[in-house]
Amino acid sequence: MQALLDTAHIGGLLRTYTRQEVTSALRSTLQALRGSVRSGRLTSLPDFDSETFATSVASHIEAERRPNIRSVINATGIIIHTNLGRARLAPEALDAIQAIGANYSNLELDLHTGKRGSRHSHVENLICDLTGAEAALVVNNCASAVLLSLMATAHGKKVIASRGELIEIGGAFRLPDVIEQSGAILKEVGSTNKTRAADYERAVDSETAVLLKSHTSNFRIVGFTSAPKREDLAIIARNSNTILMEDLGSGVLIDLSAYGLRDEPVVSDILKSGVDLVMFSGDKLLGGPQSGIIAGRGDLVGRLKSHPLCRAVRLDKLSLAGLEATLRLYREPHDPFQSVPVLRAIAQTIGEIRGRADRLADALIASGLEDVTVAKSAAYVGGGSLPQQDLESYAVSLSVPSYTVDAIVAALRAAETPIVGLIRSNRFVMDARTLTDEDLPFVLKAFRGLRGR
Length: 453
Fold this sequence. Notes:
Aspartate Aminotransferase, domain 1, 3 domains
């Protein structure tokens, strides 16, 4: 090791990097070389006193210095891509996060009275205005919202749920497990494909606390099916002095049917139907930072706020600032379909998408790629929302000489700004619905680097 550090080129790295960084990179490089020699993949050693070897060590250091969580370009056509961070935030939300992160704030100070305030008050009125709820509470995600709601209202008591709605969300988290962790007792009713209001009514007894409805946002059962109307369940809940809750999952504040998306209920409509509490995500169709929103009856929200678990799952100041800024984009004079990136991606015209695809294809061809085409594609909302409804789109499809499609995918993931696309028919595909005009120069740079290897 000391002999390597004494060479001219490796020693020169010490003027740019710390000694610890250089020695650590050397150890990793030497370990990799030993492994290659043992396996027979390498028959001759590099020149350890060469600029080439020093450059490889420097590249290792730069890779180690690179942040683990990085910006990537989403070319998959999936707007709310869970693996890629779900919703892109609006500039207003980013500005709010920057301002609150860089300064002290009135997070829990009432500026009018000078006394301790509540962090919940910063967004509660906004949520109530947008949903028609009596009260609202925000926690760190929707799973926490469901857990808190059940723990505060049904611990030790029964929760009645339809067998066809006992969903599993990402990461193998299952609704029955959440109910169990809340301390409630699950009572399943109906069958996988058919559940009626009468099934709930027959199951209610003196030990029942909650009738739970879950929006099956990440799957569909089709064919011979039926599910009770919320209005009918609300009547049963009132007559039996129980609580009707709905785990909405994604949650949307405005009607998306004008864009061909008709199966995602609007939060305000759910509350109007008689649901007492509704829980939904802030980082999916709403378009804000990760959060779980609970909206509904004032007395029930009050119980949740005073429950000990509420502090454990409370929202941090940065997410709260971003959520408030996002919610304000749903109020005049803003147009959320222009201001909220998730909704803008849904609402953009097919002409805009085709134009972006054509511009990218033309630029790639001008850079020297020959096998580049533009074709119709199908994009998706994603994030566990609207699984059977696609969005009309256009995509750029290509191949690169001397590269397999798997090699293209791997190389683009390793780019300075990684690009995540699709493989279709043994070609690399980039869907233009999730690309932005600002992404295109980075895509071109990555492909120029690919061809320069």
